[in-house]
Design a protein that fits this description.
The longest helix is centred in the last third of the chain and has 11 residues, at about 260-270. By secondary structure, this protein is an alpha/beta fold. The protein has ten helices and 15 strands. The strands form three sheets. Strands 1, 2, 3, 4, 5 and 11 form a six-stranded mixed beta sheet that branches.
Length: about 325
Protein backbone atom coordinates (compact mmCIF):
# COMPACT_ATOMS: atom_id res chain seq x y z
CA UNK A 1 0.00 0.00 0.00
CA UNK A 2 1.00 3.61 -0.49
CA UNK A 3 1.52 5.26 2.91
CA UNK A 4 -1.20 7.85 3.20
CA UNK A 5 1.18 10.55 4.35
CA UNK A 6 3.10 10.26 1.07
CA UNK A 7 0.27 11.64 -1.05
CA UNK A 8 -0.04 15.23 0.00
CA UNK A 9 -2.83 17.74 -0.52
CA UNK A 10 -1.36 20.38 -2.83
CA UNK A 11 -4.37 22.73 -2.61
CA UNK A 12 -5.46 23.62 0.90
CA UNK A 13 -8.25 25.97 -0.26
CA UNK A 14 -10.57 23.09 -1.17
CA UNK A 15 -10.91 19.44 -0.36
CA UNK A 16 -9.20 17.57 -3.22
CA UNK A 17 -11.19 14.89 -5.02
CA UNK A 18 -9.94 11.38 -5.68
CA UNK A 19 -11.65 9.68 -8.62
CA UNK A 20 -11.68 5.89 -8.78
CA UNK A 21 -13.20 3.13 -10.90
CA UNK A 22 -16.52 2.53 -9.15
CA UNK A 23 -19.10 1.90 -8.01
CA UNK A 24 -18.57 2.03 -4.25
CA UNK A 25 -17.10 -1.25 -2.92
CA UNK A 26 -15.01 -1.91 -6.04
CA UNK A 27 -11.46 -3.14 -5.49
CA UNK A 28 -10.24 0.20 -6.86
CA UNK A 29 -12.37 1.96 -4.23
CA UNK A 30 -10.72 -0.16 -1.55
CA UNK A 31 -7.28 0.74 -2.94
CA UNK A 32 -8.19 4.44 -2.92
CA UNK A 33 -9.34 4.25 0.69
CA UNK A 34 -5.99 2.74 1.60
CA UNK A 35 -4.06 5.56 -0.09
CA UNK A 36 -5.95 8.71 0.83
CA UNK A 37 -7.16 9.76 4.28
CA UNK A 38 -10.92 10.15 4.42
CA UNK A 39 -10.74 13.37 6.46
CA UNK A 40 -8.51 15.06 3.87
CA UNK A 41 -10.03 13.91 0.56
CA UNK A 42 -13.40 13.45 -1.09
CA UNK A 43 -13.95 10.31 -3.16
CA UNK A 44 -15.76 10.18 -6.47
CA UNK A 45 -16.81 6.92 -8.11
CA UNK A 46 -16.45 6.91 -11.90
CA UNK A 47 -18.25 4.52 -14.23
CA UNK A 48 -15.27 3.62 -16.43
CA UNK A 49 -11.47 3.87 -16.43
CA UNK A 50 -11.61 6.55 -19.19
CA UNK A 51 -13.85 8.58 -16.86
CA UNK A 52 -11.07 8.56 -14.24
CA UNK A 53 -8.55 9.79 -16.81
CA UNK A 54 -10.96 12.50 -17.97
CA UNK A 55 -11.56 13.69 -14.40
CA UNK A 56 -7.83 14.08 -13.74
CA UNK A 57 -6.99 15.62 -17.13
CA UNK A 58 -9.81 18.19 -16.80
CA UNK A 59 -8.71 19.16 -13.30
CA UNK A 60 -11.99 18.07 -11.77
CA UNK A 61 -10.12 15.58 -9.62
CA UNK A 62 -6.72 16.03 -8.00
CA UNK A 63 -5.95 12.31 -8.16
CA UNK A 64 -7.22 9.21 -9.91
CA UNK A 65 -6.90 5.53 -9.00
CA UNK A 66 -7.00 2.88 -11.73
CA UNK A 67 -6.09 -0.81 -11.90
CA UNK A 68 -2.93 -1.48 -13.89
CA UNK A 69 -2.08 -5.16 -13.59
CA UNK A 70 -2.90 -8.35 -11.74
CA UNK A 71 -0.43 -10.96 -10.58
CA UNK A 72 -2.58 -13.77 -12.03
CA UNK A 73 -4.07 -12.30 -15.19
CA UNK A 74 -1.52 -9.69 -16.26
CA UNK A 75 -1.91 -6.12 -17.48
CA UNK A 76 -5.27 -4.33 -17.55
CA UNK A 77 -5.65 -3.66 -21.28
CA UNK A 78 -8.14 -0.84 -20.77
CA UNK A 79 -5.58 1.14 -18.75
CA UNK A 80 -2.75 0.45 -21.19
CA UNK A 81 -4.93 1.74 -24.01
CA UNK A 82 -5.41 5.06 -22.22
CA UNK A 83 -1.69 5.44 -21.51
CA UNK A 84 -1.09 4.83 -25.23
CA UNK A 85 -3.07 8.06 -25.74
CA UNK A 86 -3.04 7.88 -29.53
CA UNK A 87 -5.24 10.97 -29.89
CA UNK A 88 -3.45 13.07 -27.24
CA UNK A 89 -6.47 13.34 -24.97
CA UNK A 90 -4.49 12.96 -21.75
CA UNK A 91 -1.18 14.78 -22.36
CA UNK A 92 -0.79 15.99 -18.77
CA UNK A 93 -1.54 12.79 -16.87
CA UNK A 94 1.33 11.18 -15.00
CA UNK A 95 1.71 8.31 -12.55
CA UNK A 96 2.79 9.51 -9.11
CA UNK A 97 2.23 6.40 -7.00
CA UNK A 98 1.16 2.79 -6.84
CA UNK A 99 -0.74 0.54 -4.45
CA UNK A 100 -1.04 -3.23 -4.09
CA UNK A 101 -4.24 -4.91 -2.94
CA UNK A 102 -4.73 -8.59 -2.11
CA UNK A 103 -7.81 -9.64 -4.06
CA UNK A 104 -10.08 -12.46 -2.96
CA UNK A 105 -13.13 -13.03 -5.14
CA UNK A 106 -16.57 -14.30 -4.16
CA UNK A 107 -19.41 -15.57 -6.29
CA UNK A 108 -22.43 -13.48 -5.30
CA UNK A 109 -26.11 -13.95 -6.07
CA UNK A 110 -29.31 -15.41 -4.66
CA UNK A 111 -28.69 -18.71 -2.94
CA UNK A 112 -30.42 -21.94 -3.82
CA UNK A 113 -30.39 -25.18 -1.85
CA UNK A 114 -27.06 -26.31 -0.45
CA UNK A 115 -25.99 -29.50 -2.18
CA UNK A 116 -23.37 -31.98 -1.05
CA UNK A 117 -23.04 -33.25 -4.63
CA UNK A 118 -21.72 -29.96 -5.99
CA UNK A 119 -18.10 -30.80 -6.68
CA UNK A 120 -15.82 -30.60 -9.70
CA UNK A 121 -15.22 -34.34 -9.45
CA UNK A 122 -18.93 -35.17 -9.52
CA UNK A 123 -19.53 -32.75 -12.39
CA UNK A 124 -16.78 -34.35 -14.43
CA UNK A 125 -14.82 -31.14 -14.80
CA UNK A 126 -11.89 -32.59 -12.87
CA UNK A 127 -12.13 -36.13 -14.22
CA UNK A 128 -8.83 -37.12 -15.88
CA UNK A 129 -9.06 -37.67 -19.63
CA UNK A 130 -6.54 -38.53 -22.34
CA UNK A 131 -6.39 -34.91 -23.41
CA UNK A 132 -6.23 -33.65 -19.81
CA UNK A 133 -4.71 -36.38 -17.60
CA UNK A 134 -4.09 -34.01 -14.69
CA UNK A 135 -6.87 -31.39 -14.67
CA UNK A 136 -6.67 -28.41 -12.34
CA UNK A 137 -8.79 -28.47 -9.22
CA UNK A 138 -10.30 -25.29 -7.75
CA UNK A 139 -9.16 -24.07 -4.34
CA UNK A 140 -12.70 -24.00 -2.97
CA UNK A 141 -16.18 -25.49 -3.36
CA UNK A 142 -19.55 -23.73 -3.64
CA UNK A 143 -21.46 -23.07 -0.43
CA UNK A 144 -24.78 -23.62 -2.24
CA UNK A 145 -26.03 -25.24 -5.42
CA UNK A 146 -25.21 -23.29 -8.56
CA UNK A 147 -27.68 -25.11 -10.80
CA UNK A 148 -29.87 -22.01 -11.05
CA UNK A 149 -27.09 -19.73 -12.30
CA UNK A 150 -27.64 -18.92 -15.99
CA UNK A 151 -25.18 -16.03 -16.40
CA UNK A 152 -22.15 -14.59 -14.63
CA UNK A 153 -21.27 -10.90 -14.61
CA UNK A 154 -17.89 -9.38 -13.81
CA UNK A 155 -14.92 -7.40 -15.07
CA UNK A 156 -12.85 -9.32 -17.67
CA UNK A 157 -9.87 -9.32 -15.31
CA UNK A 158 -11.90 -11.09 -12.61
CA UNK A 159 -12.97 -13.81 -15.04
CA UNK A 160 -9.32 -14.40 -15.91
CA UNK A 161 -8.42 -14.73 -12.24
CA UNK A 162 -11.06 -17.39 -11.51
CA UNK A 163 -10.83 -19.72 -14.52
CA UNK A 164 -10.28 -22.93 -12.56
CA UNK A 165 -13.38 -22.49 -10.37
CA UNK A 166 -15.52 -21.38 -13.30
CA UNK A 167 -14.35 -24.29 -15.44
CA UNK A 168 -15.15 -26.76 -12.67
CA UNK A 169 -18.55 -25.53 -11.52
CA UNK A 170 -19.92 -23.14 -14.15
CA UNK A 171 -18.54 -24.45 -17.42
CA UNK A 172 -20.54 -23.22 -20.38
CA UNK A 173 -22.47 -20.64 -18.36
CA UNK A 174 -22.77 -17.30 -20.17
CA UNK A 175 -20.26 -14.64 -19.11
CA UNK A 176 -21.08 -10.95 -19.37
CA UNK A 177 -18.30 -8.34 -19.18
CA UNK A 178 -19.12 -5.19 -17.19
CA UNK A 179 -17.11 -2.14 -16.16
CA UNK A 180 -16.19 -3.36 -12.67
CA UNK A 181 -16.83 -6.14 -10.18
CA UNK A 182 -18.93 -3.85 -7.98
CA UNK A 183 -21.08 -2.89 -10.97
CA UNK A 184 -21.61 -6.59 -11.56
CA UNK A 185 -22.90 -6.93 -8.00
CA UNK A 186 -25.28 -4.00 -8.56
CA UNK A 187 -26.67 -5.62 -11.69
CA UNK A 188 -27.16 -8.99 -10.00
CA UNK A 189 -29.09 -7.28 -7.21
CA UNK A 190 -31.35 -5.71 -9.85
CA UNK A 191 -32.02 -9.07 -11.57
CA UNK A 192 -35.43 -10.18 -10.34
CA UNK A 193 -35.06 -13.67 -11.84
CA UNK A 194 -32.36 -14.60 -9.32
CA UNK A 195 -30.47 -16.50 -12.01
CA UNK A 196 -27.50 -14.14 -12.31
CA UNK A 197 -24.29 -14.25 -10.29
CA UNK A 198 -21.40 -11.81 -9.94
CA UNK A 199 -17.72 -12.23 -9.26
CA UNK A 200 -17.01 -9.48 -6.75
CA UNK A 201 -15.77 -8.79 -3.23
CA UNK A 202 -17.23 -9.73 0.13
CA UNK A 203 -17.70 -6.01 0.72
CA UNK A 204 -19.91 -5.83 -2.38
CA UNK A 205 -22.03 -8.67 -0.99
CA UNK A 206 -22.59 -6.73 2.23
CA UNK A 207 -23.39 -3.44 0.48
CA UNK A 208 -25.80 -4.95 -2.05
CA UNK A 209 -27.31 -7.55 0.30
CA UNK A 210 -26.33 -10.52 -1.84
CA UNK A 211 -25.66 -14.09 -0.79
CA UNK A 212 -22.14 -15.46 -0.99
CA UNK A 213 -22.50 -18.57 -3.14
CA UNK A 214 -18.76 -19.30 -2.96
CA UNK A 215 -15.76 -17.50 -1.55
CA UNK A 216 -12.07 -17.49 -2.31
CA UNK A 217 -12.69 -18.58 -5.92
CA UNK A 218 -9.53 -16.98 -7.35
CA UNK A 219 -7.05 -19.41 -8.91
CA UNK A 220 -4.17 -18.36 -6.67
CA UNK A 221 -4.14 -17.51 -2.99
CA UNK A 222 -1.56 -14.77 -3.65
CA UNK A 223 -3.81 -12.99 -6.17
CA UNK A 224 -2.82 -9.31 -6.06
CA UNK A 225 -3.75 -6.27 -8.13
CA UNK A 226 -1.54 -3.23 -8.62
CA UNK A 227 -3.17 0.18 -8.95
CA UNK A 228 -1.68 3.40 -10.28
CA UNK A 229 -2.21 6.81 -8.70
CA UNK A 230 -2.72 9.45 -11.38
CA UNK A 231 -2.31 13.19 -11.19
CA UNK A 232 -2.01 16.08 -13.60
CA UNK A 233 1.51 17.07 -14.60
CA UNK A 234 4.75 16.33 -12.76
CA UNK A 235 4.94 15.97 -9.02
CA UNK A 236 8.56 16.48 -7.97
CA UNK A 237 7.87 15.07 -4.50
CA UNK A 238 6.55 11.75 -5.81
CA UNK A 239 9.85 9.92 -5.27
CA UNK A 240 11.12 10.13 -1.71
CA UNK A 241 12.74 6.73 -1.28
CA UNK A 242 15.71 5.00 -2.86
CA UNK A 243 13.45 2.32 -4.32
CA UNK A 244 11.61 3.80 -7.30
CA UNK A 245 10.11 2.92 -10.68
CA UNK A 246 9.55 4.71 -13.96
CA UNK A 247 7.21 3.97 -16.88
CA UNK A 248 7.75 5.11 -20.47
CA UNK A 249 6.10 4.39 -23.82
CA UNK A 250 7.79 4.39 -27.22
CA UNK A 251 7.52 3.25 -30.82
CA UNK A 252 10.26 1.97 -33.10
CA UNK A 253 10.66 1.42 -36.84
CA UNK A 254 9.74 -2.24 -37.16
CA UNK A 255 11.55 -2.44 -40.49
CA UNK A 256 14.88 -1.92 -38.70
CA UNK A 257 16.44 -5.22 -37.54
CA UNK A 258 17.09 -5.19 -33.80
CA UNK A 259 15.24 -1.89 -33.24
CA UNK A 260 13.67 -3.01 -29.97
CA UNK A 261 16.89 -4.67 -28.80
CA UNK A 262 18.76 -1.41 -29.38
CA UNK A 263 16.29 0.46 -27.17
CA UNK A 264 16.57 -2.09 -24.38
CA UNK A 265 20.35 -1.89 -24.60
CA UNK A 266 20.08 1.73 -23.42
CA UNK A 267 18.83 0.46 -20.07
CA UNK A 268 21.33 -2.36 -19.77
CA UNK A 269 24.22 -0.04 -20.56
CA UNK A 270 23.16 2.13 -17.62
CA UNK A 271 22.55 -0.79 -15.24
CA UNK A 272 18.79 -0.19 -15.05
CA UNK A 273 16.68 -3.26 -14.31
CA UNK A 274 13.48 -3.66 -16.33
CA UNK A 275 10.44 -4.78 -14.32
CA UNK A 276 7.86 -5.18 -17.10
CA UNK A 277 7.33 -4.86 -20.86
CA UNK A 278 3.92 -4.61 -22.52
CA UNK A 279 2.69 -3.60 -25.95
CA UNK A 280 -0.44 -2.40 -27.74
CA UNK A 281 -1.10 -1.93 -31.47
CA UNK A 282 -0.27 1.52 -32.85
CA UNK A 283 -3.46 1.46 -34.96
CA UNK A 284 -1.45 3.33 -37.59
CA UNK A 285 0.25 0.42 -39.34
CA UNK A 286 -1.05 -3.16 -38.85
CA UNK A 287 1.07 -5.29 -36.54
CA UNK A 288 3.23 -2.44 -35.31
CA UNK A 289 3.21 -1.63 -31.64
CA UNK A 290 3.50 0.91 -28.86
CA UNK A 291 5.81 -0.49 -26.19
CA UNK A 292 5.46 0.12 -22.47
CA UNK A 293 8.63 -0.36 -20.44
CA UNK A 294 8.81 -0.08 -16.68
CA UNK A 295 12.18 -0.02 -14.95
CA UNK A 296 13.80 0.60 -11.58
CA UNK A 297 14.87 4.19 -11.02
CA UNK A 298 13.41 7.69 -11.10
CA UNK A 299 13.61 10.50 -13.63
CA UNK A 300 12.69 12.94 -10.85
CA UNK A 301 15.21 11.81 -8.24
CA UNK A 302 18.12 10.58 -10.35
CA UNK A 303 21.16 11.19 -8.17
CA UNK A 304 23.34 8.80 -10.16
CA UNK A 305 22.26 10.27 -13.49
CA UNK A 306 21.76 6.81 -14.97
CA UNK A 307 18.03 7.18 -15.66
CA UNK A 308 18.29 10.46 -17.54
CA UNK A 309 21.33 9.21 -19.41
CA UNK A 310 19.36 6.18 -20.61
CA UNK A 311 16.37 8.30 -21.55
CA UNK A 312 18.58 10.72 -23.47
CA UNK A 313 19.99 7.82 -25.48
CA UNK A 314 16.53 6.66 -26.60
CA UNK A 315 16.22 9.32 -29.28
CA UNK A 316 18.71 7.55 -31.51
CA UNK A 317 16.61 4.38 -31.69
CA UNK A 318 12.92 5.32 -31.29
CA UNK A 319 10.42 7.13 -33.47
CA UNK A 320 8.95 8.83 -30.42
CA UNK A 321 8.72 8.24 -26.69
CA UNK A 322 6.90 9.58 -23.65
CA UNK A 323 7.64 9.59 -19.94
CA UNK A 324 4.52 8.45 -18.06
CA UNK A 325 5.79 8.91 -14.52
CA UNK A 326 8.16 8.01 -11.70
CA UNK A 327 7.08 6.93 -8.24
CA UNK A 328 8.10 5.08 -5.08
CA UNK A 329 8.13 1.30 -5.46
CA UNK A 330 5.64 -0.21 -2.98
CA UNK A 331 6.06 -3.87 -3.87
CA UNK A 332 6.75 -5.66 -0.62
CA UNK A 333 6.69 -2.36 1.19
Amino acid sequence: MVPRSKLSNSDDTRTPIVSFLGPVSSYTHQAALGCFEADRYDYKAEITIPDVFEAVQSGGSEFGVVPFENSTNGAVVFTLELFADRHHRYPDITVCGEAYLDVSHCLLGKKGVKSSTDSPVMSGACTPTMSSPDPLKPRTSPLYSLDHVKRILSHPQAFGQCETFLGAYLKGVERIDVSSTSRAAEMVKEDTTGTSAAIASKLAANIHDLDTLAQGIEDREDNTTRFFILRKRTNGSACKTSKTKTLITFTVDHRTPGALASVLQCFQANCLNLTSINSRPTRVVPFQYIFFVEFEGSKLNDQSGRVNKALSALGEYVQDWRWIGSWDDRLGG
